[in-house]
Amino acid sequence: MTIEQSTEINFTLNPDKEVTLVTAPGVFTPNATTNLLIQAVKSTISKPANLLDLGCGTGIVGLALHFQDLISSPLYASDLSASAVHCSRENFERYACQADVRGGSLFEPWKDKKFDVIVDDISGIAQGVADVSPWFQEVPCDTGEDGTDLVLDIIRKAPQHLNEGGHFFFPVLSLSNVDMILQVANENFATVVRVGRQDWPLPADLKEHMPLLQELYAAGAIKLEEKFGMVLCYTEVYCATNPLFI
Fold it and tell me: Of 45, 169, 175, 244, which has the fewest beta carbons less than 10 angstroms from its beta carbon?
């Protein structure tokens, strides 16, 4: 990534806190799911922790928790995207957050490392939805037909990277196979608790593809809800503890 390719965006963490972030093409832009994930961690963790921001993107999740004094330095962060690694390093340095940032797929950069808290910011949506969604025009989506490929891999490997008493946070989008994701989470952790949820209207760009969405819904690849005459999607955040297998 060259300096010319990078840009800056503003992201609001709360009514009193806005941060300016370096980003670049191919780096996922923070959104409502990002804030939901941050709030879920803040409401669960009460003291500084040895923490991994998995799929760090711009680094905003780790930064937000750093601002709340919930990180035992250094913050650990990783992303498959070299551009994301570069942007995260820039943003951590800008806000004086000591961090160990590595490039690589999922847990590959952390083969022998364990953490008190793992915050997974890698979610998935069904491939058919990704193909027609504006969200993934610059960011690759390789999460499979029902959006679970990466998420299930992360859930199954997370226990190997948690310290005793550790917490694993992960988001689930209704535009993926929610039931399969939660089934695998419960097969790998004794305790899986929902710690956040946000409903949101189906975006106008996707309403144009209702036949496709109805087909995916019938196949169990996504979930859709109808309320107040609107088609709704949702994002949930779960906290998993007490791994069953290590």
Answer: 244
pLDDT on residue 137: 55
Query: Is the pLDDT confidence value at 67 over 90?
Result: yes
Q: Give strand pairing partners of 241.
A: 191
Q: Is 15 exposed, middle or buried (0-12, 13-18, 19+ CB in 10 A)?
A: exposed
- CA gap 137, 140 in Å, rounded: 7
The torsion region of residue 55 among left (phi > 0), alpha (psi -120 to 50) and beta comes to left
Least confident segment among 66-75, 82-91, 202-211: 202-211
Buried/exposed 97-114: b ≥16 CB within 10 Å, e otherwise: bebebbbeebbebbeeeb
In contact, 232 and 224? CB cutoff 8 Å: yes
CA dist 213 → 46, 88, 174, 204 (Å): 40, 34, 11, 13
Q: Does residue 134 have a cis bond before it (omega within 30 degrees)?
A: no
Average pLDDT on 186-197 reads 98
Residue 223's Cα: distance from chain center in Å?
A: 19
- Taking CB atoms within 8 Å and a gap of at least 24, the contacts of 9-17 are 9/58, 11/58, 11/60, 13/38, 13/64, 13/67, 17/67
Q: Point out the least confidently predicted range of 33-47, 49-63, 124-138, 227-241.
A: 124-138
Spatial separation of the C-alpha atoms in residues 73 and 235, rounded to whole Å? 30
Phi and psi at 115, nearest 5°, equal: -135, 155
Handedness of CA 217, 31, 78, 119 (dihedral sign): negative
